[in-house]
Sequence to fold (400 residues):
Amino acid sequence: MRESPAVLGGQPAFAELLRFVKPDLPSHAALEPALREIVSSGMLTKGPYLGRFERAAAEHLGVKHAVAVSSCTSGLMLAYRGLDLRGDVVVPSFTFMATVSALVWAGLRPVFADVDPLSTNLTPEAAERAITPDTSAIVAVHNFGNPADIEGLKAVAEKHGAALVFDAAHGFGALYRGSPVGGQASAHVFSLSPTKLLIAAEGGIVATNEDRLAERIRVGREYGNDGHYDSLFAGLNARMPEMNALLGLHGLAMLEDVARRRNQAADEYRQRLHEIPGLAPIHVAAGNRSSYKDFAVTVDPDRFGLSRDELVRALAAENIDTRNYYDPPVHRHKAYRHFAAADLRLPNTDLLAACSVSLPIGSNLGEGTVAKICDAVHRIHRSARDVKAKLKGGRDSVVV
Fold:
């Protein structure tokens, strides 16, 4: 039974569940002296570690300002408000919901655009098609840490007098033409949550070279209070605590090693999966480096022999955890579908939502883990007809 996939009674690839992601964190011993300092000082927020982290992040990204906030979502909200955006904003639907929810919270109307099926990112051509007379900005995403076509999108934005903002939630560790993503637009907004390469438990960074925008975000994260208890505008409580800044500071020192090891794992995935028909990893443009926050593949059911969801169920039987991003896409969410015209067609977005799956990846994957995952995918593909028949028998019949 060794050659049979687990769903057909074979031995699972892993005896216990292989978690989709495990955070890359500094050791307790490395953090303990500073944690003691923070606690004994009583300065739990707005202290020295916040400043140190912001300066280190700005240096790493090559920008004038890196403003730390409580989350990527609050950073997006403040960036949209700080840029005085109005009316329509072009945005991909194949993204995490926060990209769009922050727009709506800022009183803006999302205009959904399609993405490239190979890179999964918004293209300049799709952005141009979605421009309206009321467009004030283009918001693009570096999906899965794969840099978008920044220069092409910048050209479209400049042509139409629109701001360009990137939801760079997955962006730490990504390189665009050899340089970190971050300084190539009005703002890049990063996430520091536990699924990312750079982790601060929770938090975000708004990177910008625009002095006015940086100042408005600093004031905005303090409720809009400039220090005189007089709100300049309606802001948020979006401060980053000192302990989160400490985690981020240590994580920044680890970042390049984390990104390098993730890219090594991605290279191994590509080598071991390339002979399987119907599996297509996302395309990373020459000269760029993905952070590989996720390793996503698109499943062609006709060529692979199983649908994405059938593959996911078969991998679950192997104790391999996976994720389906972003299904449903945002333009089909109950909260946002009224922004989409009845005749809106986003074929690539719908294809990716139905067919994309992300496999476990991380710098801490044990030796041989990627090989075992790929071997399991090979076994499932070779037995695709029997697996499909087994799965049609009902979920309860699947051995997990």
Remarks:
- The longest helix spans residues 242-273.
- Residues 214 and 279 are 42 Å apart (CA to CA).
- The domain at 28-252 is CATH 3.40.640.10 (Aspartate Aminotransferase; domain 2).
- The chain has two domains: 6-22+255-397, 28-252.
